[in-house]
Design brief:
By secondary structure, the protein is α+β, with helices and mostly antiparallel strands. It folds into three domains: 133 residues, Immunoglobulin-like; 111 residues, Sandwich (Immunoglobulin-like); 37 residues. Helix content is 24%, strand content 36%. The protein contains four helices and 20 strands. The strands form five sheets. Strands 1, 2, 4, 6, 7 and 9 form a six-stranded antiparallel sheet that branches. Strands 13, 14, 18, 19 and 20 form a five-stranded antiparallel sheet that branches. A four-stranded antiparallel sheet has the order 10-12-16-15, with no helix packed on it. A hairpin with a 4-residue loop joins strand 15 and strand 16. Helix 1 packs antiparallel against helix 2.
Length: 291
């Protein structure tokens, strides 16, 4: 059974049996995070300290859930964020803790600092495990926009914007630059990898592409960085963005012919004059008949 499933069941059991309302809400919240957020690409699990005295916490985390195991109550295990001399404590910097059983506690840490976290153990059999980590970067395809639907044989560039969880432009912390790769899946199922370059701030732009086929186009976006040990880390995977290309109509084609717009205007004026003459002629005849 996956570790996230085991810990979720344990937390839900505690939530149903505890007499402390605060603990109940805390346990249910963690259970929901692990059960509901687990299938998404921004969730990773199960990094364990084991016999080591450190944990590598990746950047761009929105929330991290830790399990802390100690042999007994008098053999504590303490966790220190990078550059801190104070271990994790419930109620400090938004950290919440729940004692599940003797020797086992769970910590929920919002926006943890990336880097190497120190683990201090009173006994060698103590350990710390990251059971869930949810990344906060989001993304959206801003070009082509919803206001202008492309048509067949248009040539355009794709623009993808990275966002924070609050919808604002994503700001990269020092030392953790992001890279973005994008594959465009055409209506016939063929995928092309596009060269994406940074277009200022948190936006990336592709080179010009020809939309030769009508139908729906999907994008497969991967956003990567490096952790504190220079290992590749995926912080966002977006397979759901896309756009629809309409078939070019005869009216659209005619508008692109030089002088066709003026031809349309002349035709409309001629029709208006003919209708006006017909109305005048009918009015004159009607008056003669009345007379």
């Amino acid at each position: 059974m996956p570790s996230s499933t085991r810990i979720s069941r344990s937390l839900l059991y505690v939530a149903g049996s505890t007499r402390c309302k605060k603990c109940m809400r805390f346990a249910l919240a963690i259970g929901i995070i692990l059960l509901a957020a687990g299938p998404f690409a921004g969730v990773h699990a199960s990094q364990e300290s084991g016999g080591r005295d450190r944990l590598i916490v990746p950047p761009y985390l929105d929330v991290m859930v830790l399990d802390v195991f100690s042999a007994s109550a008098d053999a504590p295990v303490e966790i220190f964020p990078p550059g801190s001399t104070t271990p994790l404590r419930s109620g400090i910097d938004g950290v919440e803790a729940l004692e599940i059983s003797r020797g086992m506690s769970t910590f929920t840490v919002p926006r943890p600092r990336p880097g190497v976290w120190r683990v201090r153990k009173s006994r060698t059999d103590g350990r710390v495990r990251i059971v869930s980590q949810v990344f906060f970067p989001r993304g959206m395809l801003v070009e082509p926009s919803f206001h202008r639907k492309p048509v067949q044989h248009d040539r355009l560039s794709l623009v993808y914007r990275l966002l924070d969880s609050d919808g604002k432009a994503l700001i990269e912390p020092p030392g953790y630059a992001l890279s973005l790769s994008l594959s465009l899946v055409k209506p016939d199922g063929h995928a092309d990898a596009l060269l994406m370059t940074r277009d200022g701030g948190a936006e990336f732009r592709s080179s010009g592409i020809d939309l030769s086929l009508p139908g729906h186009y999907w994008t497969d976006v991967r956003v990567m960085t490096l952790d504190a040990e220079k290992r590749p880390l995926e912080v966002l995977r977006d397979r759901w963005s896309g756009f629809t290309v309409d078939t070019r109509t005869n009216d659209k084609t005619r508008e692109e012919v030089p002088g066709s717009r003026w031809l349309d205007v002349r035709v409309r004026i001629s029709i208006f004059i003919l209708v006006l003459l017909a109305v005048i002629t009918f009015g004159v005849r009607y008056r003669k008949l009345r007379a």
